[in-house]
Amino acid sequence: MKRKLNILAGDTALWVIFILLSVISLIAVYSTIGYTANDSNTTPMAWFFKHLAFVAISFAIIILLSRVNYRIFAKLSVLGYVLAIILLVTVLLLKDERWLRIPGMMSFQPSEFAKVVLMVFLARNIAVNRDKLDDNNLFWMLLGSIVLICGLIVVENLSTAVLIFVASYLLLFFGKVHRQMWLRGLLAFVVLAAIGMTVIYLFGDKIDLFRTSTWDHRLEAWLHPNPDELNQENMARMAVARGGFTGNGIGTTIHGRLMTQAHNDFIFAIIIEEVGTLAAIFIFLLYALFYFRCIRIANGCKGLFGSLSVAGIGTVIFLQAIIHMSVAVGVLPVTGQTLPFISYGGSSYVFLAAGVAIIQSVAIDNKKQRLQAQLQSNEENPSEEVSSSPSNEMLNQENNTI
After folding, report:
1. In a domain, 154, yes or no
2. Average pLDDT of 274-298?
3. How does DSSP assign 288-340, residue by residue?
4. Predicted pLDDT at 387
5. Is residue 350 part of a domain?
6. pTM across the whole model
7. Is residue 358 part of a domain?
């Protein structure tokens, strides 16, 4: 009898969450894209269908890549890491801020590619060196690979560099890499971050290095907001205040019509304006459940590489969501981080979808491993027949790898 093709294979809960976020995204983007559509002399419907295409591509990426044995990504991560460095350097040399543009084809942010690749690369190196986790040299090697990527990104995108660094450093903790060195590094990071924020706040405009003046302005606007200034931050706060608990109805946004980044950096604030705090809580719970499922999948994976890859990618997505939501309600200064799988699609949507595909690949493999264990423990079938089947032999061999 032929086996039925399960298109949405893997962790069912993750699929449900991703579909719900995508549906919310389609509604929210259509409701908030008016300013951008008008500015580009097109229509909201045209931008909506463009976003719909990104969502559809993301679905296809997850479906296709999740069928790939996740262990293959360990081998590709080294090449991906090198490619990420080349792309980030190219962006800096072209002085085109965060985007790499291919004329007549597409444009994307290499930092979004590096965000996922670095998690897989670190997971691979920790797994390969699992017998040397207490080695100082391993810690510095891993930290160096993180700093190199973040150093290339921080020039034009401080928030993404910080996000990647925090997620990567947490991954070192999950991987149980030299705990004493890890704690010392954490203390050093906190101290340097405090000093850096102080310097930027006091001398950001005077230094004028990289984007320090922008960072200084954002920090100043957050610490000392001017209620009379009609900027993105204030309009986001007004949108949240107007939304209240139940919102004013989908499509009724006022502030979303005036904000240049309503469909990206502040889409969560517009969702609250239209659907209320109740919907905001629901969205937060979706991300929390997403992360919880990632941890469950990571704990259920027998291979260290698969476990850490899932933990790393899940941490990046969850932290990015928390940062975006915090900015939208005024808890953090403006960062420019999109809301994963809800903000207007592009490189962030597609590359994070590739990350979800890796997570689902691990989930599919976990199910195969559990099925094998059930077959081997089934007293109705001889153990010799189970262990001699080609599929079980392949799984046993793969369990001995990273």
Report:
1. yes
2. 95
3. HHHHHHHHHHHHH-SSHHHHHHHHHHHHHHHHHHHHHHHHHTTSS-------T
4. 43
5. yes
6. 0.88
7. yes
